[in-house]
Amino acid sequence: MRTHNLKDVSVKVPFGVMTVLSGVAGSGKSSLAQALMDSLESPVINLSQRAASVNLRSTPLTYLGIFDKIRQRFAKANHVSNSLFSYNGKGACPTCKGKGVTITNMAFMDPVVQTCEACHGRRYSPEALGYRYQGHTIADVLEMSVDQASENFAADEVIGPRIHDLQRVGLGYLKLNQSLTTLSGGELQRLSLATQLSGRGNMIFLDEPTAGLHMQDIDKLLVLFDDLIAQGNTLILIEHNLTVMTQADWLIDVGPDAGRYGGQILYAGEPAGILKQPDSYTGAALKGALKMD
């Protein structure tokens, strides 16, 4: 492979395991990952940090495709049309058109975004908010956190498991109606991962999936990775987290430095072997971490 700063490298990636690409920033990890994906005949699920489609109306519920199911539950319980519980249609607040905010365009300045004074950010018309399901209005449900909604829909065989998938990827704190425009790159990537948890035999690429996570959440994510591997999937991760590196089945270290001083494969093999690689910053960092432990 020869692309960007990669120096005509050749590397093998085993299937059915978790491979971590390591190295300093700018060493060529992303270039190597892209070259690997381009060289594979089988399709790759690329869950990059901007994999999720983002717009002002998109939320975790719409992304997972379960908002329609919740609307159906409300419609059936109240004997009315599904469209009444859509903030993109009949049920939308007439003032903000279901956005929950009003946007005032200013000449030569950024637009001013304010919470809608009519619906107070709830997106719905008074008529839609007059109906309830399990004691909640549709806006009440959308304002629940993922953790709250998982408990509320625990008995629902369709909605419950999909919401639980968001918990499994460490997004239990998100609101169901939270705009995806407010999520970080790492959160968007984990949201995309939630759609793949039942997949089998897939090649999945992730770019720093542990970015911004607490150690406890990283541990949960590692358990999730083990589950994906047990289902016959192959994972390729770009990572700087030392704990993730030690838990990898295969480690590929790129370096030694950044830019034109990088682009070489310093090591490829089981993680323990990199401790003997004298030119690797990753090896040195892992040695230091192991001594501290």
Give a verbal description of the structure:
32% of the residues lie in helices and 13% in strands. It has two domains: 18-52 and 184-292, P-loop containing nucleotide triphosphate hydrolases (Rossmann fold, 3-Layer(aba) Sandwich), CATH 3.40.50; 60-181, Up-down Bundle (ABC transporter ATPase like fold). The chain starts with 17 loop residues before the first strand and ends with a helix. It is of the alpha/beta class and 293 residues long. The chain has ten helices and eight strands. It has a six-stranded mixed sheet with strand order 2-5-6-1-7-8.
Task: Give the gist of this structure.
Helix content is 32%, strand content 13%. It has 293 residues and is α/β, with parallel strands linked by helices. The protein has a 6-stranded mixed beta sheet with strand order 2-5-6-1-7-8. A two-stranded antiparallel sheet has the order 3-4.
Kindly name the structural category. Answer: alpha/beta
CATH T-level fold name of the largest domain: Rossmann fold
Helix and strand sequence = EHEHHEEHHHHEHEHEEH
Number of helices in the DSSP assignment: 10
Distance between the termini: 37 Å
Largest sheet: 6 strands, mixed
Oligomeric grouping of the chains: single chain
CATH architecture term of the largest domain: 3-Layer(aba) Sandwich
Domain module count: 2
Can you tell me the residue ranges where pLDDT is under 50 for at least 5 consecutive residues?
Answer: none
The strand order across the widest sheet is 2-5-6-1-7-8
Number of E-type strands: 8
- Alpha carbon gyration radius: 23 Å
Strand content: 5-15%
Shape: elongated
Query: Percentage of helical residues?
Result: 25-40%
CATH class of the largest domain: Alpha Beta
Mean pLDDT: 89
Name of the CATH superfamily of the largest domain: P-loop containing nucleotide triphosphate hydrolases
